[in-house]
Predict the structure.
Amino acid sequence: MTNPKTQSPAQSPAQSPDEIEAHWYRTVYQGDSMPQLTFRAVLMGSLLGGFMSLSNLYVGLKTGWGLGVAITACILSFAIYKTLRTLFPRWFTTDMSILENNCMQSTASSAGYSTGGTMVSAISAYLIVTGHHIPGPVLAWWTFFLASLGVFLAIPMKRQMINVEQLKFPSGIAAAETLRSLHSAGREAVIKARSLGLAGAFGGALTWVKEMGSPFRIPSMLEFPGALGGIPLAKWTISFDVSTIMIAAGAIMGWRIAWSILLGAVINYAVLAPWMMSLGAIDPAKIGYRAIVSWSTWTGASIMVTSGLMAFFLQWRVVARAFGALVAVFRKRDKGAEKPWERIEVPVSWFLAGTVISGLGCLWVLHSAFGTTYLMGVIAVLLTFFLALVACRATGESDITPVGAMGKITQLVFGVIAPSNIVTNLMTASVTAGAAGSSADLLVDLKSGYLLGANPRKQFLAQFLGIFAGVLVVVPAFYILVPTAADLGTDRWPAPSAQVWAAVARLLSTGVDALHPTARLGLLVGGALGLVLTLLDAFLPSKRKFVPSAMGLGLAMVIPFFNSLSMFIGAVIALVLEKKAPRHAELYLIAVASGLIAGESLLGIVVALLQASGLG
């Protein structure tokens, strides 16, 4: 039976902040009555987070898409711990409490999300534009300081946005409900855990037989018959990828984005690319993904940049509320003795010390490794704080974190104040996007903890400890998966997010004159399309389901057609299941999709390791 104290508190708008927090402390908080920050919770969270960071790195290099890890980590930890209790009952004698599982998913989420996002965007873009890797120790320090800055920036925002304003953070609510169902409905928990495990095994086995499965090896790509412009469809990337990972990603991302991606892919690869070849913008002798995307990136990037920025500016009320609440974040609400609920919150002194140390660390790496002046670094860190404030509020109100828009705002700022320095443009924007996205993601975890009655100070420590696991895993994995710049922008690693970042940095540095005239036209048309679609989305909400997603169309221009097709197939499967069998969708959809992604991506990394060592 669910503990009544784990139910979401209901407050009156007339209550003062102290009254709201006192009510939560009396009716929901249970952090002193059950285990939370335990060694086993942090250890399992670190191990899972390390694996999830690999999974997100793998998926991000393929799609540019960051997948949340909280719900997957909840189910995985529950399944693994139940298995360990069954196999080794003498060592694992008790179940994890719901707060231990929540603590575990906070560690896993921090390791899996806050350390890997910058790898598939700014770091990969740096590799594209410079042609060489950042040295390993530098990248490790950079990743650590960025993730730490994001964790510490979340401290003051948590109390204001979650405790007082009660912002929704829908993914946080979903993670809390997942934990409640796992801990209260034994049969349902077993079904979800078993589904995730079987799906993971299937995804891993499929990867193995594709890459290492002799004599049972199967082709990794099925080519469609036919040709465009006298060139086989496969050369235009119009094929079917024998993989479940993109199908699973499509099932999670939703119907509207998925059909928009397929629409964009058809337009780009079946219409525009052949047309551009006939106009001489694409060399017929080099037709393939890299040649096509070198042209289409400009249209896709402009769609995503203008739509992201327009969506950001349309949220001016969110921005105003964010800055309006800035003073409330720091002010002391009441004089006098410290309240019981204040003793369990993360103190502002931790925020100040952590932000200063991690901010100085970012300045040090920016200056010593990338040649960015200290003044530029200070501007980047200060800008990051204000944009993180906006990103966290947007996530709390809409469940959408505008990381791309945050990074592009910084790129535009430094395009003005340091117009010829591509590296400074990329790495200062990396501070903003990495830290702001990390803060917003961690607030989602803190929302789960708030609903379950967790001790926020202990949950913060779990998040901070997760950073170490993520850095230890994701940094060396990046070098193994992407040994050279030539590996990016290929069928295997399209790296769409990195290509957009690199394209914006180059454009701000060199201007548009160097582009082919059709690419310049694509830049203008794409920019206008991004604005129009975003405005239609905002002002015609009743017609929204008929309006293509600007982000979906833009993304289709920078990933191969076969990835878009797989995502569409996954979204169709999810849509049919949700319509025809909603109960089965609730039980199986997220669990199976997460298992497929985890299994296939992790085995894909194992294969890459074996191949790098000469054993594959």
